[in-house]
């Protein structure tokens, strides 16, 4: 398949994050070398749709859209058919399912996902929490967090915490190294979940080497050696065993997949404090 210079257009009468997230999830199933993803948000006029469809027709791309305004949605569908461009209505089938099943009508109001309600402020609070208590910077976070992630360096602890923060969950993380004493705040938690993250040593060595190169450092340091990594993992596993926490191997898992597993394991009594 010729997968060079593929074009995908994301269009919305709100921000467009929903359609973009769906497109990116689908993209992971294909071996694209180069994809140009272009997002158009806050669409209000039909001439904007005409221009976007025209661009998609010229580049040979397709459109993923979330347009809740009926006139804009119909305009997108009609213009796409007229120009021979594939346009995917991301929200339409789901909204129709609500209508058909519950005999209700949609509000047809763009941007409800970003309404400044309690859930929005919980997410902001969780984001600030994740940044403040990242990488063991403040051990008080180990007591305050709903979820604590532990593991050796570069096992995706921080991005997973940030992802869970977007779900309104307060998460902290702590790196484990043999030279470090396990803090008492981790051993005695009044509530919350502890999850250990581990990874294949060879894969982790590759990730650490790339990290060193990105920082302008020599990739052959002990930090990226398999021997050092195996030493760290043995130590981390001993800590996780003593804590009795669940351990997830993140070697071949995306951040979203690991976060989903962790979120599904949060006890209801803890989850209710973030809802």
UniProtKB/TrEMBL annotation:
Tell me if Transferase is a UniProt keyword of this record. yes
Q: What is its EC number?
A: 2.7.11.32, 2.7.4.27
List the InterPro entries hit by this protein, alphabetically.
Kinase-pyrophosphorylase (IPR005177), PPDK_reg (IPR026565)
Q: Which reaction does it catalyse?
A: N(tele)-phospho-L-histidyl/O-phospho-L-threonyl-[pyruvate, phosphate dikinase] + phosphate + H(+) = N(tele)-phospho-L-histidyl/L-threonyl-[pyruvate, phosphate dikinase] + diphosphate; N(tele)-phospho-L-histidyl/L-threonyl-[pyruvate, phosphate dikinase] + ADP = N(tele)-phospho-L-histidyl/O-phospho-L-threonyl-[pyruvate, phosphate dikinase] + AMP + H(+)
**Keyword field:** Kinase, Nucleotide-binding, Serine/threonine-protein kinase, Transferase
- List ligand-binding residues for ADP: 151-158
| Molecular function GO labels | kinase activity
Task: Quote the function comment for this protein.
Answer: Bifunctional serine/threonine kinase and phosphorylase involved in the regulation of the pyruvate, phosphate dikinase (PPDK) by catalyzing its phosphorylation/dephosphorylation.
Give the similarity note: Belongs to the pyruvate, phosphate/water dikinase regulatory protein family. PDRP subfamily.
Q: What protein name does the entry list?
A: Putative pyruvate, phosphate dikinase regulatory protein
**Which organism encodes this protein?**
Paenibacillus spongiae
Q: What is the lineage of its organism?
A: Bacteria, Bacillati, Bacillota, Bacilli, Bacillales
């Amino acid at each position: 398949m010729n997968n060079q210079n593929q074009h995908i257009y994301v269009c919305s009468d709100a921000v467009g994050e929903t359609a973009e997230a769906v497109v990116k999830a689908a993209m992971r199933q294909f071996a694209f070398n180069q994809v140009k993803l272009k997002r158009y948000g806050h669409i209000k006029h039909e001439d904007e749709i005409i221009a976007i469809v025209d661009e998609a027709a010229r580049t040979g791309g397709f459109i993923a859209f979330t347009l809740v305004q009926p006139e804009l949605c119909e305009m997108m569908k009609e213009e796409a058919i007229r120009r021979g461009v594939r346009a995917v209505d991301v929200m339409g089938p789901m909204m129709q399912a609500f209508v058909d099943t519950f005999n209700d009508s949609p509000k047809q109001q763009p941007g409800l996902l970003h309404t400044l309600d309690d859930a929005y402020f919980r997410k902001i609070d969780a984001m600030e929490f994740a940044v403040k208590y990242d990488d063991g910077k403040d051990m008080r976070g180990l007591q305050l967090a709903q979820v604590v992630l532990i593991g050796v360096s570069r096992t995706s602890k921080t991005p997973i915490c940030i992802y869970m923060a977007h779900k309104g969950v307060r998460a902290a993380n702590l790196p484990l190294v043999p030279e470090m004493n396990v803090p008492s705040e981790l051993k005695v938690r009044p509530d919350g979940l502890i999850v250990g993250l581990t990874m294949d040593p060879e894969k982790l060595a590759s990730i650490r080497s790339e990290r060193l190169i990105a920082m302008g450092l020599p990739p052959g340091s002990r930090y990226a050696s398999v021997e050092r990594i195996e030493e760290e993992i043995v130590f981390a596993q001993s800590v996780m065993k003593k804590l009795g926490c669940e351990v997830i191997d993140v070697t071949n898992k995306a951040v979203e997949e690991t976060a989903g597993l962790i979120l599904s394991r949060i006890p209801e009594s803890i989850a209710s404090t973030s809802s």
